[in-house]
Amino acid sequence: MAYFIHKQLIPTDINAGDPHWAKRQIWVLRLNGDDTVDSFETIEDAKSHAETLFANDPTARIYKVVSKNEDGTFSDVS
User: Fold this and answer.
1) Which of 9, 32, 40, 61 has the smallest C-beta neighbourhood within 10 Å, fewest atoms?
2) 64 φψ region: left (φ > 0), alpha (ψ -120 to 50), beta (else)
3) pLDDT attached to residue 31
4) What is the pLDDT of residues 1-46, one digit of tens each?
5) Euclidean distance between the first and final Cα of the chain, in Å?
6) What secondary structure does DSSP assign to 35-66, as a single string?
7) Which residues lie below 8 Å from residue 40, measured CB to CB, with a gap of 6+?
């Protein structure tokens, strides 16, 4: 099974804050043309990389680990 990192497309505005209704639930594999698709063979490697991305991102963007289903959709990993 392959594991991927989903990246929050638009992070929370850390300066102004978000209204309570703004969920920002748009997830992408690549943020732009220069970004990479992060895929891993083990969930441990994927979680470790997601934590590293979060720690190094000043925008407070959320990164989550997902698994790719046989039909091409993705499922969140706990």
Assistant:
1) 32
2) beta
3) 95
4) 899 999 999 887 767 766 766 777 899 999 999 999 999 999 999 9
5) 15
6) ----EESSHHHHHHHHHHHHHT-TT---EEEE
7) 2, 3, 4, 46, 49
Kindly report the number of other CB atoms within 10 A of residue 66's CB atom.
19
**Which residues span the domain enclosing 36?**
3-76
Q: Taking the CB of residue 76, how many other CB atoms lie within 10 A of it?
A: 10
pLDDT at 20: 66
Domain count, the chain: 1
**Tens-place pLDDT, residues 59-75:** 889 999 999 999 999 99
What angle is formed at CA 78 by the lines to CA 4 and CA 56, rounded to 5 degrees?
55
Dig out the tokens for 27 from the structure: 């997830």
